[in-house]
């Protein structure tokens, strides 16, 4: 706190609230614009007399979105791939993080470094050979292929995050339990996992978010309409001759809703995860 | 000794003791540790390392989808540097986007962190609220910005002409310079809150006594920011600056949705250009070369980042 323990002066208050207001306006305005557009009729979207405020708001964009597009299937595909990837990544990540932090064997430092490298290695370098590999093993245009490709970023991320959490748990706890006759897996189940529960929640949230928002791998691996994820569906609005901005913004809002719900209820974990090494973006 | 009189029970006891023997001795702890890490290694070696290595081989081939590749040595790389003017723009854009948006993100993030670190009304609420740009899917923000920067119906032109700043609607995404500026602004909007939250966590770990002592010594607000706050934040600031540079290097969605690399190939990054060549143009070998040619830049970034983020106990 800049003023130490003293109360802020009036001038300081005005400046601080002013900066805060500016930041809030900048952060919020695109959402306002998105939401407003989604409630405008086709004609109102380009009407210069009602740009920032609109008369006659309508929900027709949302009705048409659900009636005319495959948005329900996009959501279904995305949800299935997201759930499968997150579950697998958590199991693999928990096992690996426990192995690296709880056991002593040669090479575990190398492993933790490989995890770090895979965490920062860009998708930009991986997507072409990954496409060819999945093509070779017949996984292109399949849900399982999408899951495999999403594992390439969710697994390093979850492992990286969980290693950080597991390290904060005192080793003595596990050792004491082992002396009392617990098995190593019992230690994981009864001691590490309960203590690292916040970390697991955070890993789940971020893995979910990464999968839900993924675009590049989906664009290379999903070719038919049946395999389209939410991201591909949203992007497909840009392939038509005329952009229907009202419907597009309605779809954008629908695809943001799950993130918003998660964020509103689990904000604490999101902030925790961000400060623990963030999330790829 | 009861067990000895019942052969079947006896067998079971012996079997159980055999199992516990194997768990505790033969099957000792380090073996279990290695078993637990096998799935991770399978994913990382099979789905990350192997493709990365095969990308190197691929970049030495002329290859289209569905057809076996032909080995052509370094021809792709030679073509990239002698005949392809876009790749230089890609390098330039990567550095430009990274630098310009990082500067904006640091300014916005620092302002956010400093303000939210004070005892203001509703600061927890505003911390959450300001994180919204980071929470929405990149694709959604890219679409929204594309629409905001739209030449005819976009709100940016409407506001600018309303304020009398421009006389004609600007083609934000239609000229190279403005398109790059639009991408930088969108990228900064999306990322500043991540800087803000991370820096806020850094601020909260600075002991209050430091400020009090400085105040007693007569240091003003700016002096306190300059002498105490910024030096304490420096390590964490470097980490997030490099992370964000790597993400920018890696960006696909924002550019592909807002400009698709256009106008006339002027806004491409490595990922979008490689995608354009590989999947739109079906030259996978050349595309692999494009995606690998930024590696030195990437290695340099990781080399700086690694000692900061990867600390082994």
Brief overview, please?
Chain A has helices spanning 10-38, 60-68, 71-102, 108-120, 123-136, 143-167, 171-179, 184-195, 197-213, 216-221, 230-236, 245-275. Chain A is mainly α and 281 residues long. Chain B has helices at 2-5, 7-26, 29-58, 75-82, 86-116, 123-130, 132-135, 138-148, 155-162, 176-204, 208-216, 221-250, 253-258, 270-280, 284-292, 295-309, and strands at 61-62, 70-71.
Largest sheet of chain A: none
SS element count, helices of chain B: 16
Would you state the CATH class of the largest domain in chain B?
A: Mainly Alpha
Structural class based on helices, strands and sheet pairing of chain A: mainly alpha
Distance N to C terminus of chain A: 30 Å
- Indicate the CATH topology of the largest domain in chain B: MetI-like fold
Work out the largest interface and the residue count of each chain.
A-B, 104 and 107 residues
Low-confidence stretches of chain A: none
* Total domain modules of chain B: 2
The backbone outline of chain B, from C-alpha atoms, is globular
Average pLDDT of chain B: 86
CATH topology of the largest domain in chain A: MetI-like fold
């Amino acid at each position: 706190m800049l003023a130490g323990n003293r109360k802020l002066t009036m001038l300081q208050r005005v400046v601080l609230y002013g900066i805060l207001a500016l930041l809030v306006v900048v952060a919020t305005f695109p959402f306002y614009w998105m939401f407003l557009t989604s409630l405008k009729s086709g004609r109102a979207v380009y009407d210069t007399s009602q740009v920032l405020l609109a008369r006659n708001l309508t929900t027709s964009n949302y009705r048409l979105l659900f009636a005319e597009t495959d948005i329900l299937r996009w959501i279904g595909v995305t949800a299935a791939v997201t759930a499968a990837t997150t579950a697998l990544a958590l199991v693999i990540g928990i096992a690996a993080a426990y192995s690296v932090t709880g056991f002593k064997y040669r090479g575990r430092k190398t492993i933790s470094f490989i995890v770090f490298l895979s965490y920062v290695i860009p998708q930009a370098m991986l997507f072409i050979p990954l496409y060819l590999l999945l093509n070779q093993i017949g996984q292109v245009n399949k849900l399982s292929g999408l899951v495999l490709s999403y594992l390439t970023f969710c697994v390093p991320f979850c492992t990286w995050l969980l290693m950080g959490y597991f390290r904060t748990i005192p080793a003595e706890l596990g050792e004491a339990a082992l002396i009392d006759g617990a098995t190593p897996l019992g230690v994981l189940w009864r001691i590490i996992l309960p203590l690292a529960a916040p970390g697991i929640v955070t890993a789940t949230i971020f893995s979910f978010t990464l999968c839900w928002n993924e675009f590049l791998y989906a664009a290379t691996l999903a070719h038919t309409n049946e395999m389209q994820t939410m991201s591909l569906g949203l992007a497909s609005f840009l392939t038509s001759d005329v952009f229907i901005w009202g419907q597009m913004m309605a779809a954008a809002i629908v695809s943001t809703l799950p993130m918003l719900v998660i964020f509103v209820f689990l904000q604490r974990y999101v902030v925790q995860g961000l400060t623990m090494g963030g999330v790829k973006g | 000794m009861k067990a000895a009189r019942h052969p079947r029970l006896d067998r079971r006891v012996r079997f159980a003791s055999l199992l516990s023997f194997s768990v505790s001795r033969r099957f000792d702890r380090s073996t279990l540790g290695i078993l637990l890490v096998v799935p991770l290694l399978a994913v990382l070696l099979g789905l990350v390392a192997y493709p990365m290595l095969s990308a190197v081989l691929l970049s030495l081939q002329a290859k289209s989808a569905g057809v076996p590749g032909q080995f052509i040595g370094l021809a792709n790389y030679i073509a990239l540097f002698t005949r392809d003017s876009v790749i230089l723009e890609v390098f330039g854009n990567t550095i430009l986007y990274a630098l310009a948006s990082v500067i904006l993100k640091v300014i916005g993030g620092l302002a956010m962190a400093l303000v939210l670190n004070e005892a203001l009304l509703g600061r927890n609420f505003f911390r959450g609220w300001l994180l919204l740009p980071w929470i929405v899917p990149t694709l959604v923000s890219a679409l929204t910005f594309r629409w905001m920067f739209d030449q005819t119906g976009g709100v940016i032109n409407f506001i600018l002409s309303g304020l009398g700043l421009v006389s004609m609607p600007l083609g934000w995404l239609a000229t190279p310079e403005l398109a790059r500026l639009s991408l930088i602004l969108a990228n900064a909007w999306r990322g500043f809150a991540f800087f803000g939250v991370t820096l806020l966590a850094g601020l909260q770990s600075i002991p209050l006594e430091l400020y009090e002592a400085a105040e007693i010594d007569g240091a003003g607000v700016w002096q306190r920011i300059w002498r105490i706050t910024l030096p304490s934040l420096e390590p964490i600031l470097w980490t997030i600056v490099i992370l964000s540079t790597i993400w920018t290097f890696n960006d696909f969605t924002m550019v592909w949705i807002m400009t698709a690399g256009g106008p006339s190939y002027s806004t491409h990054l490595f990922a979008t250009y490689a995608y354009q060549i590989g999947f739109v143009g079906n030259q996978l070998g050349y595309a692999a070369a494009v995606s690998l040619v930024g590696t030195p830049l990437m290695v340099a970034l990781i080399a700086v980042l690694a000692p900061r983020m990867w600390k082994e106990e």
